[in-house]
Amino acid sequence: MKVSVVDARLDSFKTELIVVGLFAPAEKLPAELKAVDEKLHGAIAHAIKGKEFEGEWQQFRVISTLDKIPAKNILLLGLGKKEDVTLEILRRAAGLSAKIIRDFCGITEYSTTLHDFDIKGTTKNERAQAVAEGSVLGAYQYLKFKTVDRAKIKVISQVTLVGDGVHDIVKKGAVLGECANLVRDLVNEPASNLKPADLADEARKLEKLGVKVTVYDKKAIEKIGLTALLAVNRGSVNEPRFVIMEYNGGGKKKIALVGKGITFDSGGLDIKPADGMITMKEDMAGAATVLATIKAAAILKIKAHVVGVFAATENMLGMDAYKPGDVVTAYNGKTIEIGNTDAEGRVILSDALAYTEKNVKPDAMIDLATLTGAVRVALGHVCAGIMGKDDKLIGSLIKSGSATGELLWQLPFWPEYQELVKSEIADVFNMSTMPKMAGSIVGGIFLSNFVDKTPWAHIDIAGVSWSDIDSEYVRKGGTGFGVRLLIHALENWN
Ligand code: BES
Ligand code: ZN
Ligand code: ZN
Question: Does ligand 1 come within 6 angstroms of the Cβ of 462?
Fold first, then answer.
């Protein structure tokens, strides 16, 4: 999909459809729209007067221009009360309009003016970036396996932002949207098509962008001693991979991003019920987010030094699968008693975090993982859970989340919780000694045993990386959560 900018006015640009946002209550038309409406013999004012369109959030109406202006149609989109409009509302409006235009109007090329009015506390650049992001996210479809009537499927090919001076920022917004869409593609890909080696191949593609990519295969993983990752891999016929992607665009600090890359989580011998397993191709969302963030950083050439790391394996129940009651030694030498083979994410991350701290030597480390079902119970799909001991790091990530609309909520992390991951026979237990209590915190607390001194934050994305419903710019399936948040954090690091 092409996203571009044109220096034109509402009534001077040839396009299939142009999006115009209006606040509620829609009474007085902005001057430019009023001039257009006069050419349309007052069709817009008529719709407003008859209360057919009032500017309520998500309300929309398509008006044919009958060729009175070069644009063939106008989509009036309600934005709600002006004082309630934020960048996130604009992003959502852009996502929603993409869907309306494609699915209801059958139009695949359109223009938008959604960024083009003053909103308190926002700059023109911020608004243009938000509209570009929302448009790319909203236009996303996962069509790879659709074979019937393919020619009839509408795909948006071009979106143009009408208004000058925002070329570069629109390009940036489009790149961020595309990289989030890459996460969606990887998450949506069936697990039998996207095995650990395939995820590593996807990472290798970043070499073209100047990223240094190191891929460890099973033999190399044995050699460097990631025994916890190997333990989880034992039930699978497919080899694990451990991947390091380094992008150095300058910046004083080296930041490591670590992702959980379970390409399929059956639960292992503690097998999941069918309704819990059905979406478990999503269990590599953390790894995909890390990969796509490095990609975005490299394309945008951001001023940051960032190292992306992920551990990838399936969690299966083959004949040699790791078993409840097993004891596994992690990279930092600590022993893990396996209480439940379905708590495999923390097991592979123990190796990934300890290895990254020791060998990458980052100034800060952030991990992203679809770690616990409990975070969905606690926070739903509205925000991800963040935890750790470094309140400054967590605070700035939360701020980046608010700026990008990818919300984070901090969970408590008091040392008292360590009690819950104590093992009778090993150093730590991979589940809670009090099951069904504080499940997400316990996951994070477990991980804290594999980070020594480095400032670190753990983001549990199990509630936000997958959606069962379409909303404004979210589509069913993978959501692409996290790329925009992380790029914002890296760009604003201090
Ligand atoms: N991958 C799951 C967590 C998950 C659940 C992600 C739903 C996305 C949606 C994780 O490996 C898991 O199974 N965790 C267990 C931990 C428990 C056994 C301690 C869980 O949450 O039930
Ligand atoms: Zn699991
Ligand atoms: Zn898992």
Answer: yes
